Amino acid sequence: MKLNIALLAGDGIGPEVIDQAVKVSDAVAKKFNHEINWTPALTGAAAIDAVGEPYPEETHQVCTNADAVLFGAIGHPRFDNDPSAKVRPEQGLLKMRQKLGLFANVRPTFTFPSLIDKSPLKRERIEGTDLIILRELTGGVYFGERGRKDNGDTAFDTMTYQRFEIERLAKKGFEMAMKRGKKLCCVDKANVLEASRLWRETVQAMEKEYPEVDVTYEFVDAVAMRLIQWPKGYDVIITANLFGDILTDEASVISGSMGLMPSSSLGNNVSLYEPIHGSYPQAAGKDIANPLATILSAAMLFEDFGLKEEADAIRSVVNKSLAEGVVTEDLSEGEKSYKTSEVGDWLAANI
Hints:
By secondary structure, this protein is an alpha/beta fold. It is 43% helix and 20% strand. Helix 1 (14-32) packs parallel to helix 14 and helix 9 (220-229) runs parallel beside helix 10.
């Protein structure tokens, strides 16, 4: 197979972890006789510095012409610490999601056998955890009407959803549940929010189309507790943009490190694959960042193109690296640690 992949390294540790994902993907392509053409493009703070825009039109064209997008991270502290900044790296991420129609963020949460005791949670609570959180990505409070009034003393952000936005995400959730444990949980705040009542009403209307799926409805605050108390109770979770943003980061600690969890953002024409962690600017350029989440995101990319054997080869070698202690300093716990680039080299060689 020939794949054309847009490569958006972004900011902070993004370029370093992306480099390792490319190494491993190229090794897989060589082993299984595929061809990958990588097309780099600017986004985030790097794009602002170069052209004054966090998601330039040129980058958008690279993405729309690609079969998929492999993405690193966005963000820089000089923007975080400047509330008056007119242009921010994160605006590029929102614009990219909207322009590419990336409406469904897929974030799996699972455990690694060799790291089970490095999780902050007890083994008996998390062993066997295997869930997916499906987060709506182009609607809700992040895209609703916002502003200031009363001479700037009052601020507002509006959570707005249309029925079709909920239906298309829920459809993905039902389809995933049918291929997994046939359990779907709709997470909302329907006791308070009108937008959440529309979510619940819409999903309830869709239940009859998937009679084999056991559907439950839970408030987001309850799920925030249950994810820690009993994550094995969940299979597929669907939820709104803001709730999903928070819950997926919470769920990431189950595995023992945010640097381990991959994700994809699905659209109608092109999909994007990225680690769930941020740009971690404190580690940028030090060759110490954990590249495994980005590499596992590349595995999701291969699997979505029907290349399951290739995806499994990546996951297998990642598990081998964890079991043999070929890890970056965030996972070494005082033992020998490897540089970001060394982990990438080892994984590619073992592919």
